[in-house]
Amino acid sequence: MRDAVLEPSSSPVLRASGSSTCKCRGVKSVISESDLSGVGRIEVAVQEGIATVRLVGPGGRALMDARLFEELGEVFESLDRDHAVRVVILTGPGKDFSLGLDLKSAGDLLISLAEAGDTDARQDFLELLHGWQDAITAVASCRKPTIACIAGWCVGAGVDLAAACDIRIASSDSVFSVREVRVGIVADLGSLQRLAGVIGDGHLRELALTGGDISASRAASIGLVNHVMDGAENAMVAAAATAARIAQNSPLALRGIKEILNAEREPRVAAGLRYTAAWNAAFIFSEDLREAMQAFTEGRDPVFSGR
């Protein structure tokens, strides 16, 4: 779909001067793109008022685990308070934006809670889920404009994260999937709430009920992404150029725009998240979940029973 592709802009992009650091507990703070290596699940670089937040994930993989969620909330709360930051670009560790939840670690945790089979286990799960929801909400409620720069796979919790951003720019090889239904659970970190206002009810229902994959061009045609670029490098150039244009505007006006746009959405999202968390706490410890985790381990398609 050629008319959905935005050509690389000649607008100014990040330069190597005017650098600052983000002080986030447990997160590596850096001042240049070449320094984006080291420990932690998230790495942050701030240059000329534009913060680049890179999801590194466990072992450098594009996966989201409990530690990444913890760092994500800390990072965006810190960026929200940092007067040196005007815009945030969020990107993945390499060829993929996010493969979603680390199913091995999350599956082991969920199965252990299910085997406990008591109210304490459900309360523990509910507390864990609320913490993960809060981490994604920290992105959505950040008073600085946020741009998701997406390449490769954007799956499950990765879609939740992208939906929490203000603008989404994707490479032409990107693939999107609200895939939770295929592992026997209800998407519970915000896609079902935030995407309704982005792509509309009909498209959201199709994505969530089928768990299917869609291309970058299809994502652009339904409004899931703002622009599609030819390749990951050009997507990052476009994201940086967009961030630079935004950063030239009044920080107070930018904050006001976000506050006003969020005034209707966020109470509705918060209510939906609470309901989803309660639903999953009640029903996630199911035979279908066990079957999904077993099928994942064995590399086969699950066969669900509805129990």
Give a summary of the structure in a few sentences:
By secondary structure, this protein is an alpha/beta fold. Helices cover 47% and strands 14% of the residues.
Report on the structure:
With 307 residues, this protein is α/β, with parallel strands linked by helices. The chain has a single domain, classed as Alpha-Beta Complex (2-enoyl-CoA Hydratase, Chain A, domain 1), CATH 3.90.226. It is 47% helix and 14% strand. The chain is built from 11 helices and 11 strands. It has helices spanning 66-81, 103-116, 119-140, 157-163, 191-194, 196-199, 201-210, 216-221, 232-247, 251-283, 287-298, and strands at residues 19-20, 28-30, 42-47, 50-55, 87-91, 146-150, 153-155, 167-171, 175-177, 213-215, 227-229. The strands form 2 sheets. Strands 1, 2, 3, 4, 5, 6, 8 and 11 form an 8-stranded mixed sheet that branches. β3 (42-47) and β4 (50-55) form a beta hairpin. α1 packs parallel to α3 (119-140) and α2 runs antiparallel to α11. The longest helix has 33 residues, at 251-283. Residues 1-38 have low confidence and may be disordered.
Structural key phrases:
2-enoyl-CoA Hydratase, Chain A, domain 1; eight-stranded mixed β-sheet; three-stranded mixed β-sheet; 11 helices; 11 strands; 47% helix
Strand content: 5-15%
CATH topology: 2-enoyl-CoA Hydratase, Chain A, domain 1
Q: Tell me the name of the CATH class.
A: Alpha Beta
What is the assigned CATH homologous superfamily? 2-enoyl-CoA Hydratase, Chain A, domain 1
Termini distance?
Answer: 42 Å
How would the blueprint of this fold be written?
Elements (H helix, E strand, L loop, with lengths): L18 E2 L7 E3 L11 E6 L2 E6 L10 H16 L5 E5 L11 H14 L2 H22 L5 E5 L2 E3 L1 H7 L3 E5 L3 E3 L13 H4 L1 H4 L1 H10 L2 E3 H6 L5 E3 L2 H16 L3 H33 L3 H12 L9
Helix pairs in contact: 1-3, 2-3, 2-11, 3-10
